[in-house]
Amino acid sequence: MPGLSAYEKIAEPEEIRLLTRLGKRLAGRSFLHVNSTSEGGGVAEILHRLISLFRELGILARWEVLKGNPPFYDMTKRIHNALQGQGSEITPRMWEIHREVNDSNARQIPLEADLVFIHDPQPAALIHHRRDGLWVWRCHVDVSHPQPEAWRELAGHVGRYDAAIFSGAKFAQRLAVPQFVVPPSIDPLSEKNRDLGEQEVREILDGHGIGLDKPLLVQVSRFDRFKDPLGVIAAYRMVKKYHDCRLILAGGPASDDPEGEEILSRVREEARNDPDICVLLLPPFSDRTINALQRAATIVLQKSTREGFGLTVAEALWKSKPVIGGAVGGIPSQIHHGATGFLVHSVEGAAYRIRQLLHNPELGKRMGEMGREHVRRNFLITRQARDYLALWVALEHRGERVIQI
To answer: 193 lies in a domain?
Structure first.
């Protein structure tokens, strides 16, 4: 992976200087992250890069993955859906399974560290096994309108932490602990976001049988009901009556998402008789393919109905593409409506905005240029690393009016 110096020509200079100073202050300290999967989804992707950056700064960073069984992952998917507002029955026995798996992992994972970040609901109950050090719960999902019973149960764990971090202010909840807002980020130098030449892009698409003879509408996301791939197909069909275009729905499996196969099956059935809909199930670490798909896209979609943040939006904006996204979760912080893309609330709205951009390529080009600069200033990995380290220092000096960095 590229070192910190490689970001000096991309990120804001002051950001790099502050990150370096924070690293010197915290060098030799230990920083543990725990989540539920090592691949699939934005959390794992971010952690791969952050751990490397923290280690370069001299911080003893490590990453552990919770190990569960099918009943556990079924239950935590129900929690995930309930936190995002969907009615999901979660029985007392399911919560017992959640606690049992966390207790079992606590006997296997060395939890000693100066700072421990526990990511999302799956490992939240590890807090009952805390050792010394600061513990922070990091929430990546949209909890703006959670099912009350599910949130109440989860809050019983979260309230024991030293702090909680959310991806946006609208996700804040009634908690007795300090709450912080830290948006996720992308790595501009990763295989998924690095520059690709036109020939390289064409070769990758040729390998998947995707032609460039028509405008490409692309959505890259897990096959999850909240990403609304069926709604994307419906919008495409409305547009298809007026524009000869092609739709690409690409995503990969996540080991902690037991619903993915069911949603993928429904998407394939809906697309079965249309040669201009391409459904790609990508294996883990298909970053180069995703990069090429986003760069080849005429328009990128992220028509989520619930969304913690939606890093695919930032990825596409970084590639100077106009993006149409659902007006939910963290997407509005990335898409400034009418400037870096369009926010939509319905299938019909998505179809209307797709047609508008296909009619006006210059508008899409201007949006893409503004979107790339917006990402550069706000959503690069160096900013997130800086935020995490600054939060660490702030927690250690709670109550002090001035903190010297």
So the answer is: no
